[in-house]
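To whoever picks this up:

The parser on our side crashed when reading a file containing two proteins. I've narrowed it down to the boundary between the first structure block and the second sequence. Both blocks are reproduced below exactly, byte for byte. First block:
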Amino acid sequence: MSDARPILFFDSGVGGLSIVDPARAALPDAPFVYVADSAGFPYGIRDEAEIAARVPALLGRLAERYAPRLIVIACNTASTIALAAVRSALDVPIVGTVPAIKPAAARSRTRTIAVLGTAATVRQRYVDDLAARFAADCRVIRHGSAALVTLAEAKLAGEVVDPDAIRAAIRPMLEADCGDPIDAVVLACTHFPLLRDELQRAIARPIDFVDGGDGIARRIAFLTQGQSFTRERPDRAVFTGAISEGLEAAFSNRGFATVEQL
C-alpha cells in the first residue's frame, strides 16, 4: 500500500541539513519536507520561554499542514528546551537532536571533552544530565557561539568564511583547555558539522568532532522500518521568513526541488 506521508525536518535555519544528509543516505526513497523557521532565527540567542512556546505551536501547525509520518527536530536548542512538550502535544513520532556527549566521552583518551553549541543549549539542565550520566569521569568544557551559526548559514549561502572569524569564535573554548588537552569536541548545534573542515583547520591539531547525524538517521530508519514510501511530489524546503537566493540554491543542490515561503 502506497504511503506518501513525508518525514518532516525542523530547524531554525539550515543546520538540519547535517541531519538530512545521513537520513537521505539511509532512506533514499523517503519523501522529505524541511522547515526552516527563518522568521525565528537564531534560536540560540532567544529566551528559553519563547522557544518553549514557539516550537510546539509551530510544529502543531506544520503537522496539520504536511501530515508527516515522523518529525525530526533537527536543532539541539529546540530539542533540549521543547522536545518533551512537542511529544506531549503531537500524536506523531518525534525524534530529537541532543548533544552526542556519550560517544564523545567513550572516544576520549585525555578525558577532556568540549561541548560546542549555542549558548542556549550548553547551559541546559539536559546537558548537565548527559554529562553526569555519560561523562562523569571527564572534564567537560562548554562553549556557546552564536557567531558559528551565522557563519554556517553564510557558507551554505555561498559566501566565503573568514578563517579568523572561526578562530575567534572558538578561542574561549581552547583557552579554557588548561589541563589535559581536549581531544573530542561535541558539535552540539546542527549547524556546526557544516563547518567541520573550517573548525579542524582553526584548531590545527588532531581532534575528534562528534555529532549525532548518523545516530539520528539510524533512529529514523528504525522507527519507519517496514513502512512503504511513495514520492508523489518533489521534496520541498519551506521557510517561515525570507529566503536568500544562496540558501535557495543550497537546498536545491541537496535534492529539495521546491523551495517556498510559508
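<<boundary where parser fails>>
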Amino acid sequence: MIINRKFAPAMHDDPPILVCADLQTEYLTEGRSHVISDAEAITSRCLDLLTLWRGNLWPVMHLKRIAHAAWFNPASNLTDWIAALKPKPGELTFEHPLPSAYSSTRFAEYMANMKAIRCVLVGFSLDETILSTAVDGFHRSHRYQVVLDAVACRRPADGDPAAYKDAVVKVIGNYARIRNGSDPLVQNNEVSA
C-alpha cells in the first residue's frame, strides 16, 4: 500500500477526497483562450496525486466544465478528459455549467449530505472553477485544501502569468488552505482546510 504521510488521514478520520477540477483538453490546446502555460508540469503533478489516491483506495471525484459560452463548446472534443487523467469506474464525476462545482445540482447535493468532509483540490481553471468552488464551499462549511503545485490558471491577457497566479492564490487563501506538495506544514497527516 502506498501511503504519503503528507496527505494520509489520521486513524479516526475518513480520507480526504481528491477533487480533480476541469482536467480537460481545452486547457492544453494552443490558440485557445484558456490554454495553460505550465500544463505539462501541472498534469504530471495531478497524475502523481491521482496515483497516490487510487493506490490507497481513497475517494476521487472529477469536475467537468460544460459551459454554454462561445469560447467553451460542450459538443466539442475539447471538453474531453485528458487521457491520462480521465475518471476510472467507481470515481464520481460532476458536470458544472458555471465556474463553481456547486452549480451542479448533483455535486451540491452530494456535498450537502457528507459530514466532516475534507477535499483536496487540484487541476485547471484556478481562477474560475477552483476559486469559486473554494468560496462556495467555505460558505457551506466544507473544508478545502488547494495543492499549489498541482493547480494552474489560464494565461492572463496582460501581465506576468506567475504574478496573476500568485494574486489568485492569495484570494483563495481566504477560503481554503493553500498547500504545496513539499510544504512542511502538511506533516503529521494534516490535510484540513
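After patching the parser it read the second block fine. The helical segments are 39-55, 105-112, 126-138, 161-172. The longest helix spans residues 39-55.
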